[in-house]
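Re: that backbone. Tokens:
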């Protein structure tokens, strides 16, 4: 190290030895943890610092692959689909005088409105619940929707 006047202040520099040779961590691979531990720590810190929506999206993507479902973002209009996602909202909204239960399904790649005509309430259908459903996806007034799908309730963390 050099002082403001240009003289050496590091005692190792005056003896001709490198200051890195005196530090034990410099000899052990530059102070890095052994291979494998760094990546585990990095993953842990990234999960702790990540947005909860990102973490949930990652978990849903893994569940989509495991259940052979299709991501909402890849669904084409008028296609028979199998989707897995989390219900974000559930509302009772009549359509043309017919009772209808409407829910927004999210899987990390997109959302789709799920509409059960003739229903005011379905036990187990509530916000935060993960479901798997099958039906034909359509676009109505710019919004994707599935009417009266076949559905399976997935186990939730509270079950």
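Recovered sequence:
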């Amino acid at each position: 190290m050099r002082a403001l006047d240009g003289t050496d202040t590091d005692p190792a520099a005056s003896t001709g030895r490198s200051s890195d040779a005196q530090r034990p961590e410099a000899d052990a691979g530059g102070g890095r943890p052994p291979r494998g531990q760094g990546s585990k720590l990095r993953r842990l810190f990234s999960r702790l610092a990540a947005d909860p929506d990102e973490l949930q999206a990652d978990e849903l993507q893994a569940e989509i692959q495991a259940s052979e479902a299709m991501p909402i973002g890849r669904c084409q209009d008028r296609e028979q689909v199998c989707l897995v996602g989390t219900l974000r909202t559930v509302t009772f909204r009549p359509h043309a005088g017919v009772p209808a239960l409407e829910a927004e399904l999210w899987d990390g790649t997109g959302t789709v409105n799920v509409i059960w005509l003739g229903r005011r309430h379905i036990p187990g259908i509530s916000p935060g619940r993960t479901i798997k459903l099958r039906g034909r996806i359509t676009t109505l007034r710019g919004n994707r929707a599935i009417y009266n799908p076949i559905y399976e309730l997935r186990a939730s963390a509270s079950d």
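The chain has a mean pLDDT of 78. The CA atoms of residues 47 and 56 lie 11 Å apart.
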